[in-house]
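Hi! If you just cloned this repository, the fastest way to understand the data is to look at a raw example. We've pasted two of them here, unedited. The first protein comes first, obviously.
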Amino acid sequence: MLLENKTVLITGGSRGIGKAIAIRLAKEGANISIVGKTTEPHPKLEGTIYSAAEEIAAAGPGKVLPIAGDIRYEDSIRNIVETTVGAFGGIDILINNASAINLSATEQVEPKRWDLMHGINVRGTFFMSQACIPFLKKAHNPHILNLSPPLNMDPNWFSKHLAYTMSKYGMSMVILGLAEELKPHRIAANALWPKTTIATAAVQNLLGGDFLIQRSRTPEIVADAAVHILKQPSYECTGNFFVDEEVLMKEGVTDFTKYAVNPDQKLMQDLFL
């Protein structure tokens, strides 16, 4: 399935994995709407939705539309979807990438941090999907792709960072439900998660600084895996919890060296795997 002239709506598209996926899809000729809250330069975060849009536009022939929005709020979601449809005529693919992270133990989680994670990760993902479904029903080969982990009820993942785990598994539960619910409409719903930590602002600022960055892969590995998934027939490829490395291995990739930030360092496996 070709991605040329497809309309792709990506939340959290101003940096990291979201931007990498947008750039990769632009190279395929897709039209991209990127959604983000960063409209002004931030001292600790790279770029804005506008600078990201410039990079994406330079990568390929597709058109790029930056939209300032906050998926925690219904009015914002409505504006995001209406603006995308108004510009491109519909929506073929929704990528729920926007996410908030806090790995604190239960006693240290502040209510505002809980609300942020669950507001973006679960509520935002659910209602973004809901708002796009009417347009996905009209699309040829429609896909929903969440950046969320395989569901695993191992208590280990809950004991270390309960609030965050609940929010990311909430995103994955959206996939579990939508894949079955949307089968009659041939809308695919899948999740994708990295095998290793990925060099993003979250890893740099919140998790492990440069030590972990040096043991991570670049966002391009997730982007390449996403493109392979989105090219699959939607009526055949749904309800899967993909891992980036496994997707690319199935496509014949055997050398992953180019994705390593520092090939001389041992890679760090990501959470939930």
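Ok, and the second one:
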Amino acid sequence: MNKFAEIAKFGKELVETQEIENALDLIAIEAKKLLKCERCSIFLIDYESQMLWTKHSDGIGRIAISTDAGIVGHTFKTRAPQIVNNPYDNQFFMPNIDKKSGFTTKNIITTLIFDSNREVIGIIQLLNKLEGDFEEDDLKVLNFFANYVSGTLELALIQEKNTQL
């Protein structure tokens, strides 16, 4: 089965998910499976505080960073996906997160998640492709996947906001 068919099959499971934590977990598991990666973090944007934060981050507790910090912040600021195959040589990489967690980042791929108004609501970041470096084909799959899951994520965020009122 090709990757795009796998995404379509995954969509059926995702549609039945209503709580944001469950949706994020399913999205992260599927993203890692599709791109054959070690870790996935899904950052959500808080425009009011200008922060990016995770409700889902493999192997480390919640991460909260400024919208202009790190490779994820650079992705947000430039509105452009990133492939970084030598993170320790990248000016935007934040090695202190690796140091804190004991994890070694070998490569990174990020892409934006947009809502129905084309506002950025999240960023998917995958770390450490299991075989080789990230390539443009990986980015095509990740962009397609981000577009595919965006509606479900937007609805889950709206539902979460409404339950807090």
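That's it. A detail worth noticing about the second one: Residues 110 and 125 are 4 Å apart (CA to CA).
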